[in-house]
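User: I'm curious what two different proteins look like when written out as structure tokens. Can you demonstrate?

Assistant: Sure. I'll show them one after the other, since each token string lines up with its own sequence. Here's the first protein:
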Amino acid sequence: MRALAAAIGLVCLSPLLLAATAAVAAAGSAGRSTTCNTGFGTDAAAVAKAVEAILGSNGSSSQDVRVEGLELPAEQIPHAKTIVATGISLHVPERGQVVALATAIQESRLRNLDYGDRDSLGLFQQRPSQGWGTPAQIRDPVYASTEFYNALLKVPGWESLTVTQAAQKVQLSGFPNAYAQWEPLARALQQAIVKVLPGGGNPAPGGQPPAAGGCTGGGDFGPIPEGTVPEGYEIPKDAPAKVQSAIRWSMGQLGTMYQWGGTCLASHGPDPMGRCDCSSLTQQSYNAAGITLTRTTYTQVNEGSSMPVSGIKPGDLLFTRPGPNGPEHVAMAIGSAKGTVLAIEAPRTGKPVRIVTQASLGDIIAVRRMVPVP
């Protein structure tokens, strides 16, 4: 496959000559591209306009969007958003996100491919035979991005390397210089995408908590397997109708995987950005009940009425993890079972929406009530 792509690449003219030819050949093994786009001369304003048209909330159509270097922007830019959002959720700095984007552009042209050189798959053309995960895992853009970032962060001094050097340390490509050409486009994408993410790319809406195991503390009824409903729990019948509706909707998201910056509008769908983070879960739960909330923990902590921790009721929003700008996590109380107060949360990257005990949330720094209790 690589030999064929290289042969095709030789007929293309490029100012980079052999370097660009090798880059096209490398991409050809995954994306089957016969074009000679080198990625240079990126128009950052055009990239920003395309990102806004495809990802923005202004209702613009993604039809007729054109970006130099992206042949299918309506497909590619959402994948770029997933890579950036996953990097932010893992607290990877901007430079690391640029490295990841440049790598994915080179390896797959930002397409979630089900083919590649030998057993390579997905956005980063990771290989199951090389320990990157199962084929299904690798084709999950969040998983693939997380694995790339985890590998990058293990590279000593990666921050001091060039983008192409850092990418090569992770990818071990046969074309080690191919990534450099995509740095301008990757940087323009990263800068444009963070502007359409909640909080302008600040990781507060669902920032990383301490690592957790596969079960959450369950008080009197034992551990709660993630994504399940603990024995004896029922939605409180004496809670206001809108609270019951919000809880019922939130429980419909149980078991769906967390995605920082996700909208929670299609958590069971194929697009990772349709999944939930902590504040979009609470926002959309109350939206289903006819109550409008803002998007981030920073703003939700100012909505509704303040309540004491000792007086938590079903439907109350519980804020934890203090940060420099306010609480960085929110969960929703859903009632109790066997004397233990329970909450539902979208916890962090790699974890599903789950039910937890109040105690397992840690110190609650604010409680806000959206629906008055009679």
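Here's a second, unrelated protein for contrast:
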Amino acid sequence: MVDSAGKAAHRSSGVAEAWSVPVLFPPHRLRPKVVVKADLLPAVSVLSTAGLLGIPLGWLWSLMAPPERVRVVTGDGQLAPLELESWHRFDDLAIYGFLALATGLLVGIVAWLMRERRGPVVFLAAAGGATLAAWLGTQLGAAFVNSKYAVDTAPALGAVVAQAPRLESGWVVLAAPLMTSLVYALLTAWNGREDLGRRLG
């Protein structure tokens, strides 16, 4: 009697398992929380270090940006650009834009390589540092080229002089932080981990 009852119970449990409803929604897993306090000091370091990249950025631009050659057309020093020389105004802006994109790319990659500090805090610091570097580069770059193409004496009428390169749009500053944000976002999507691999550091 006991054996037959046990077999019947076993068969009934097997039928119940066969007809059990599958679990559509697994139990909710606890996601890792965003670390803020521990990442504040590294974020300040990232911000300040990335901002210092504005020094070589402005220096490289001062070396690569072409000057605009102009002719003195009046006795009071009024200048007129030579033919096709006005195109260099766009060249100066484009060269700085590409250098700023390269700076943003470098900042984004280096910030991502800080595995134990990955997250929104360091990301915001990296974007802010890229913005600071791009702005500092415009200020120092202008100072470098103005010193390089300084005119000591008043040019004579009809003389051709080289006018210092200049950036005629402040929007170029946004190139660096946009590139940093894009690189960090792409690397985050490629990683696919909930904690971005911080525990593997």
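A detail about the second structure: The radius of gyration is 31 Å.
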